[in-house]
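To illustrate the input format used throughout this study, we show a single complete record. The first block contains the structure-token representation of the backbone; no residue identities are included at this stage. The design step must infer an amino acid for every position from geometry alone.
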């Protein structure tokens, strides 16, 4: 089980990035959350099987068609206690 905290920089707000992230996470059986930050970045926490989380990070570097990801940073995070994936903020 792998848990990662993710910050995505670029044109990632107002382009469906959060909804796309939720859908892509659910397809990989991940739990966690995604939200917009006031500074224009998107923040997420992803948890699931190692290969699924790593695949999701690769997918998030591309994002949906309208997004333009400039940078994606991720770091280890403590395990979550929820069993779903939600869009917040």
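Output of the design step:
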């Amino acid at each position: 089980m792998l848990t990662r905290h993710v910050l995505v920089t670029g044109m990632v707000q107002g382009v469906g990035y959060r909804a796309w992230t939720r859908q892509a996470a659910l397809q990989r059986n991940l739990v966690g959350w995604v939200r917009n930050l006031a500074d224009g970045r998107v923040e997420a926490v992803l948890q699931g099987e190692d290969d699924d989380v790593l695949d999701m990070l690769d997918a998030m570097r591309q994002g949906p068609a309208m997004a333009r990801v400039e940078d994606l940073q991720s770091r280890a995070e403590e395990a979550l206690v929820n069993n779903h994936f939600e869009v917040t903020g």
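Structural context for interpreting the output: The chain has one domain: 2-78. The chain has a mean pLDDT of 96.
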